[in-house]
Structure formats: C-alpha cells, structure tokens
C-alpha cells in the first residue's frame, strides 16, 4: 500500500527588490529528498487553494516532491496595494527575481527542479528556463502565452464584464485575501494597450531543457499557435493537444494532463 503524502502549508518570509513579503507555500512529500522537485506556477488569477488537490495527484503519480505557492498579491500571500500597478514586464520580474528569491528563502537555490506552469505561470516557467538554463531540469507548460492574440484580449474583456456583473468577486474571496486587488491588477495590465506588444519568443529560443507544451483544443484564451510556436522555436518541445478541453487542462481533463506530465517526467 502506498504511503500517505505529507502536505503542509505555511507562509515563508521572502525579500524581493528590498521588499519583505510573506509567500504562501504548500509542500508535498518534502521528506522525499532524493525525488525530483516539481514546482507549480499558477495562472493569472490562481493561488495555492485554486489548484485544489491536482498537484498532489501529479506528485504521487510521478514520484516527486512538490512545491505549490501563491505569488505576491495572490492567495494568502502578501496582498498587493491598490495603487501599485503591474508593469508590462511583470512576468519577466517573476522569473528573474521573485522565483529565485523564494527558492533562496527555502534553501532550494541549488536544486534543479521541474516546473509546471499554467497560463501566466507557463509563460513565467518559459522565461525562467531561458534566464537560468542551468537551474532547471525540465518544464511543462499548460496553455502558456508567448505573444498576444485577439482571442486572448477578447476573453479577458469578457472576464472583466463577468467580474463587474456576476458573483465572481464573492467566489474569489475563497481563494484570495483581497480578490479585488488581485483581479484588477491582472485585468488592467492585460487590457493596457502597451501590453499588445508583449512577446517572449526570443526567450523561448534560449531554452535548452526538455519542454512539454500542453493545450486544450478549445482554449478560449489562446489558439494552438501558442504551443506550436514554442515547438517551432524550441525543437526539443513535445506537444500535447487535448480534445474537449478549454484553458485549464488540469481542471477540464485532469487525468489526461496528469498522464502527460507523468510520462514526460519519467522520460527525462
């Protein structure tokens, strides 16, 4: 019989750009010190709790340790002040400064993890692998963005309307300390006209590690040109296109996504 997983959650003090922050971290089977470390990077409106139990399922299937965390301004991490606006380069900052600072605070700066990133988290994983090619074993990205599409902007405009006219703010209170600050920081920057020029294809070209790129065929936030673009630039990429699946493969098709990630990790 398989041993039950050890799962703990706590706030970790982290210093990023001379700012003291508390980052919500969940640790899955940390006692498996000889196992690969799988780090989960959430979407633009995600958090530790929004992943639910899927990271634990993947870690169990793949035999990995896990680290799940809420970025600054998300979940139970330090909230972002209302007057603090995101720059167009916010994902670059997450990859270049915030993730390394968290790993250092955890004493994991010498680890060589596997990253799993969803949506914004997928883009951050791509940027991290490009910026620190010797510090990552492999990356798996689900519904990542490498450039801006009209479809993406239209869906984000739809999300804004839903937030203004439905009970979405109330639902978000379950997952974020300050749902309004979390939502508007993300929504405002994506709908900023300057963000239209955002593009990380030049960074993808610098990635040396193995890549698994996953996307739902019915993704409402991006076309398959996103992951096919990753494959075109970084030829070591394995593609996984999932039918009957929208923007969140781990929610829409959890078993198919788990199988794809597990097979990828076991092939490394």
Describe this entry's structure for a reader.
Residues 38-257 form the AB hydrolase-1 domain. InterPro entries: AB_hydrolase_1, AB_hydrolase_fold, AB_hydrolase_sf. It comes from Eoetvoesiella caeni. With 268 residues, this protein is of the alpha/beta class. It has one domain: Rossmann fold, CATH 3.40.50.1820. 38% of the residues lie in helices and 19% in strands. It has ten helices and eight strands. It has helices at 54-62, 90-105, 120-131, 150-165, 168-172, 179-190, 201-204, 225-233, 249-252, 254-267, and strands at 7-16, 19-28, 37-41, 65-69, 114-118, 138-142, 211-216, 237-242. Strands 1-2-4-3-5-6-7-8 form an eight-stranded mixed beta sheet, with helices on both faces. Strand 5 (114-118), helix 3 (120-131) and strand 6 form a beta-alpha-beta unit. The model has no long low-confidence stretch (mean pLDDT 97).
Strand-helix topology:
Layout: E1 7-16, E2 19-28, E3 37-41, H1 54-62, E4 65-69, H2 90-105, E5 114-118, H3 120-131, E6 138-142, H4 150-165, H5 168-172, H6 179-190, H7 201-204, E7 211-216, H8 225-233, E8 237-242, H9 249-252, H10 254-267
Helix pairs in contact: 1-10, 2-3, 4-6
InterPro entries: AB_hydrolase_1, AB_hydrolase_fold, AB_hydrolase_sf
Pfam families: Abhydrolase_6 (PF12697)
Domain AB hydrolase-1: 38-257
